[in-house]
């Protein structure tokens, strides 16, 4: 946010504008609004990341502990990669 500043136009409710003007001094409003937008964008990015995690496929543990599950998944992926390399080399 330390780069060149640009003007932006937004429409907000009259009540919200009045509250902003009552709470934040005129000389600090741009910074206040910029920080509020940055915070909102960060929250949205976090929400999208968590939503993406919720849609990842689940892996059955088959009674294994987490270390064994990760080892099994990695071995399967290693085999897939090795097979792709053999096919590409052929």
Structure overview:
This protein has helices at residues 14-23, 29-54, 66-89. It has 2 domains: 1-56; 62-90. With 90 residues, it is mostly helical. It contains 3 helices and no strands. The model has no long low-confidence stretch (mean pLDDT 90). 67% of the residues lie in helices and 0% in strands. The N and C termini lie far apart (51 Å). The relative contact order is 0.05.
Compile the SSE list and pairings:
Blueprint: H1 14-23, H2 29-54, H3 66-89
Write a concise keyword list for the protein shown above.
single chain, 90 residues, mainly alpha, elongated
What would you report as the Rg, rounded to the nearest angstrom?
25 Å
The residue fraction in helices comes out at 55-70%
Q: How many distinct helices?
A: 3
Number of structurally distinct domains: 2
| Amino- and carboxy-terminal Cα gap | 51 Å
Q: Which stretches are poorly predicted, pLDDT < 50 over at least 5 residues? A: none
SSE string: HHH
Report the strand count. 0
The pLDDT mean sits at: 90
Strand content: under 5%
